[in-house]
């Protein structure tokens, strides 16, 4: 990764914020794609800083990030929303771009986001994703999710907004241990509505999604997991939280 200080004062446009817990396997390939995106960015690579919010990793995640020229911020609270907020607090860019450590970003990501925000009609949004592989189970899961994506104009991938708007809504809700990204986009939409702004899907710069949870649990598991979460919710908060912990936070890597 090129030096993050190759810029003139006041010209930091983007802060790429990466929450990470034990991501030594996947982080390098994300950083490779970020290198390409920074190198091709119209304002130059120095206009983009990369911040890795290390959420208590016990592997070489932080070491790899430093070796690759990233800023590393330690976040002790073991909640992904807290990691996103911790990285954002250290950011100096005008625009924040949040991405999970197992994504791979499109080389046009930052120019495409710039073009979208330049209209003045957009409060924020996401790029969406392409699957790194496909199967019948994945296709069915994708098809079931897309009507909600189209209807709400909310997507996954690289989530972006102006730093001032991030601060205005108070960042990510740290009481949420999952679906914090959905709540964040709802909050952005509420902020933009009286200003005549909406959310955007920047689909010409889709990221590539890692399917490790499907690799681990099976390509049809999303459907069964939805039912399991519903049943646990009926049983009470303790049962529901135990499933959240096991699915999203129990260390497997």
Question: In a nutshell, what does this entry contain?
Answer:
The protein is an alpha/beta fold.
Can you tell me the CATH architecture of the largest domain? Alpha-Beta Complex
Question: What number of structural domains do the residues give?
Answer: 2
Kindly name the structural category: alpha/beta
Oligomer state equals single chain
Give the overall silhouette: globular
User: Taking strands numbered 1, 2, ... along the chain, how are they ordered across the largest sheet?
Assistant: 3-2-1-4-7-5-8
- Give the CATH class of the largest domain: Alpha Beta
Which fold name corresponds to the CATH topology of the largest domain?
A: Spore Coat Polysaccharide Biosynthesis Protein SpsA, Chain A
Q: How far do the termini sit from each other?
A: 25 Å
Mean of residue pLDDT values: 91
How many distinct beta strands?
A: 9
- β-strand percent reads 15-25%
The CATH superfamily of the largest domain is identified as Spore Coat Polysaccharide Biosynthesis Protein SpsA, Chain A
Unreliable residue stretches: 2-10
């Amino acid at each position: 990764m090129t030096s993050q200080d190759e810029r003139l004062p006041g010209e930091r446009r983007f802060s790429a914020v990466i929450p990470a817990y034990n991501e030594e396997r996947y982080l390098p390939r994300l950083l490779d794609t970020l290198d390409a995106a920074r190198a091709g960015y119209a304002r130059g690579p120095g206009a983009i800083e990369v911040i890795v919010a290390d959420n208590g990793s016990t592997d070489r995640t932080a070491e790899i990030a430093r070796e690759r020229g990233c800023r590393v911020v330690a976040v002790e609270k073991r909640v992904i929303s807290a990691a996103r907020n911790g990285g954002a607090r250290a950011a100096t860019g005008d625009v924040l771009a949040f991405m999970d450590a197992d994504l791979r970003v499109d080389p046009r990501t930052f120019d495409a986001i710039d073009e979208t925000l330049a209209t003045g009609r957009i409060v924020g949004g996401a790029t969406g994703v392409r699957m790194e592989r496909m199967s019948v189970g994945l296709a069915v899961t994708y098809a079931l999710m897309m009507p909600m994506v189209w209807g709400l104009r909310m997507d996954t991938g690289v989530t972006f907004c102006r730093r001032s708007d991030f601060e205005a809504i108070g960042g990510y809700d740290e009481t949420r241990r999952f679906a914090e990204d959905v709540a964040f986009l709802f909050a952005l939409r509420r902020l933009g509505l009286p200003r005549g702004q909406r959310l955007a899907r920047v689909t010409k710069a889709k990221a590539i999604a890692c399917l490790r949870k499907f690799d681990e649990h099976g390509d049809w598991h999303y459907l069964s997991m939805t039912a399991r979460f519903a049943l646990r919710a009926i049983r009470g908060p303790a049962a529901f939280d135990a499933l959240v912990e096991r699915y999203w936070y129990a260390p497997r890597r």
